[in-house]
Amino acid sequence: MALHEWLGRRLDISVIIDPIPAATEYIDAGGLKFGVEYRELNAAIIDENFGDDPAKSAAVEVGKSAVNEVGRQSEVEGVAIHVFDSETNTEYLRLDAFPGIPHYHYIFPGSHHTIIHWDEIAQGSMIDQLPTFLEDHLEDMLLEVVPRERVSNYRMDEVRAALPQIYAAIDKAGLASQRNKVGELL
Questions:
Q1: What pTM did the predictor assign?
Q2: Which residues fall within 8 angstroms of residue 21, CB to CB, at 6 or more apart?
Q3: Of 56, 59, 60, whose CA–CA distance to 44 is shortest?
Q4: Which of these, 31, 39, 46, 175, could form a disulfide with 154 (CB 3.0-4.6 Å)?
């Protein structure tokens, strides 16, 4: 069993909300496409995406309760960073830097996704750790969900060269309450 399966919560692939293209800036780099989205999650959006499908009702209720638990708010918002294969447009990773419930997803297309909650006590702020996360761990994380031969075709040097552009998109989307937080780490 892979560590992410042991640590995370596994949900059916049908229970994931796709990025909203109009709210997402896309950056192609090294065979990958990064989508930086300012994302909102609330009961209405969850209902809109999943409707009254009883097969998804348990996951929908989990999503709604997670939203309601964050500061007793009815809405969570923050930046999501989507990592796609640029050729197939398949999403494999998602980093949701939501205040109060930061987490990330390993996405197994056609099957499921596993949500890993970010432990801010042990790992520090997800916002502060994004540069390390993207620079040092992206390739290893991709190997969990993408066939090795496909990952070997990604040009990680080009991805690293595009990171300043990705960080600028994150800042633009309003990831940090202190707008220059990511830029200060470069």
A1: 0.81
A2: none
A3: 60
A4: 31
